[in-house]
Amino acid sequence: MIRRFAERHPWWSAILGLAVLILLYLIFAIWPEWLVEAIGRKKIFLNALFNGITLGGLYFLVASGFTLIFGLMRNVNLAHGSLYLMGGYIGFFVADWTGLWLLAFPVAFLLVAMFGVILQLVVFRRMEGEDLRQTLVTIGISIVLADLMLWFFGGDFFNITPPGWLSGPMETGIITSQRVRSSGEVVTSTLTYPMVRIVIFLASVVIGIAMWLLLNRTRVGMLIRAGVDDRDMLSATGARIQLVFVGVFAFGAGLAGLAGVVGGTFQSIAPGEDIRFLLASLVVVIVGGMGSIPGAALGALIIGLAEQFGSVYFPTYAVVLTFLIMVLVLAFRPQGLLGRA
Amino acid sequence: MADVTVSPVDKARRNPEPYWIERIPGAYWVVGVLLLILPSFASNFFMFQIMGWTFILGIIASSLMFLAGYGGMVSLAQLTFAGVAGYMVAIFGTSAIDTISMGWPWFITIPLALIIAVLFATVIGWLAVRTEGIYTIMITLAIAAAFFYFTRQNYEIFNGFQGFNSVLPPQLFGVNWRGPEAFYYLTLFWAAAAYFAILYLSRAPFGLSLQGVRDNPRRMAALGFNVTAHRVAAYAFSGLIAGIGGILLAWQSAQISPGTISIAPAIDILVIAVVGGLRHPIGPFIGAFLYVLLKTFAVDVLIALGLSGDRFQLLIGLGFLAVVYFSPDGLLGLWQKLRESRQRDPLTGEARP
Fold it and tell me: Which segments cross the bilayer (chain B) (predicted)?
């Protein structure tokens, strides 16, 4: 695949290769004085990089459910952010009552997936093929859900605390700076990073790979891919497409719920987060390409990095930067970076 | 059947072409007269707060109705276009923030604000029409969010979180245009202008070909119509209508800030237009009237029912959900259904002759 890409786009491959080399240099080398003067200390850069990548992992979890549902059912679920928020609240209360952080994930996944099944059966099945009406209904649902959650949980911030074995910092072994003291002794400081973020990021990578394998190597995945390509033809061959729809909707909704627990551990859960994550997943799938799981991963990485680097290097316009990326992608590649035309 | 043929002269005698004044439907007379004499019996609060706001929201929502109903493009950026015009009036005209406001006279400020709003809408439209149908909603939503965050972060031009206050209409002809009666007539005039402009345009060649583009873009392209140009032009026109609404909105609340154009009110504009109905330009005004009534009195109703007044948003959401769920064409669609069912024979279910 890489070779084919390199053959087709020699210039792009050269630029990408150069960018990777520069990035590796920036991560592992000890920065010379002029570089520190130009863009600040290496520790800040590395922190922004790691934060961006891990935030990208969170965005991927939210956006992959969104893009999966869209790809199969052509249904823009604008209540996706509400599902995220719902998962976060469920996760908080499960973790709070039982004291088991890990239990929060399956419970949030299952409960939100069940809610997704109800949505699919009660709402979307009745208006199949009516894109606009479905979208409008999901807007209505998100307004109602947002207010119900505000009613039950209030406007407070909720923070899910990870268990003790995850909460400490972790030595990454990457050198951030090296100073020579006047006594001739060399002081090396290395980067430490919150353990929980790294674990969660790895988990989201695992989920992403599992999803890719499920889609590309199993029978169910074959059904889903066939449904994405031609829904009517698939149902004509006798596949029980309604069952596939319910399953995919439940899975996508459950992923949003799962991401809510992750988000509650990373950051916090509060009213308004639903719109923030809805927008984030919109931008991610627009940049990456609608209905494409690798596209969602790429888009999530780009948007996560843009947000974090933006907030470090141009704090005033950090949020605008992500939208600027979206506009650029739209202007030059409307179907998204990895989307099919 | 020779006796059936009627000469044109006879036909004209029997069925004389009605005067233009006779062709205006009765409902227009009733509503028009009612709206014109309303200040003689309505309270100041009703004129300024209820009707003024209804007309303003109706104008902005009807720009969406034009795009969605005739162009098939559902845009969530209409309030953003309105916000651009409102901000421009505050920046070029006068406001309490005199370090930024330039204080130019109204006859430069207002046209300039509208031109900038139209240009902005054209650029956004050019971006949005690169995508189809459902994608347009997402892209315009993202653009609305971007503009909101931008105005909130930018202190040099948009004065950040605070925005501008004391954005007042000019004292033209010695009238205080923010007085209840004057403002009522001002908004009524522009609402009527927007309504008739959209109605006219929907029957003009441009509107007809736009509806053709909505129904079958490939066929229209094959017939030689420039599909993209029609769509972008529709955005530009909707930007003009929304811009007028935006200036009036800034004048009514005498301020404009990022809160005016944030995501929730942008979605409210869609709610208003859809609940009213996207089939006819009167829909958004009906939707806006209902919305304003709800927003003003829902708290009292909720408290009277023993619920907390904070649940207003829930009421709006449920109402919107019910309308969209049961009637995709909004209240106008419900009205149409009711009229059709009354014309049906109750026994056979067939349409009466």
Answer: 20-39, 45-67, 79-97, 103-127, 134-151, 182-202, 223-250, 256-278, 285-308, 314-335
Contact B130 A140 (CB under 8 A): no
ipTM of the complex: 0.72
Q: Is A321 at the interface with chain B, CB within 8 A?
A: no
B91 and B165 Cβ atoms separated by less than 8 Å: no
* Structural domain of B203: 45-284
Quote the CA–CA distance of A270 and A275 in Å, as a whole number.
11
Rounded to whole angstroms, how far apart are CA atoms B65 and B283?
Answer: 8
Q: Please tell me which of the candidates B130, B150, B310 has its beta carbon nearest to residue A330.
A: B130
B172 domain-assigned: yes
Cβ of residue B119 closer than 8 Å to a chain A Cβ: no
Do the domain assignments include residue B79? yes
Name the minimum distance, in Å, from the CA of A147 to any CA of chain B.
6
CA dihedral B333, B339, B345, B348 (to 10 degrees): 0
Domain count, chain B: 1
Q: Residue A296: which residues within 8 A CB-CB, separation 6 or more?
A: A60, A63, A64, A66, A67, A284, A285, A288
Within a domain: B33 = no
Q: Taking 70 as the threshold, does the pLDDT of residue A191 lie above it?
A: yes
What are phi and psi for residue A177, nearest 5 degrees? -155, 160
Is there a domain that residue B129 lies in?
Answer: yes
Q: What is the pLDDT of residues B264-286, one digit of tens each?
A: 888 888 888 888 888 888 888 88
CB contact (8 A) between residue A320 and residue B149: yes
Q: Where are the domains of chain A?
A: 40-280
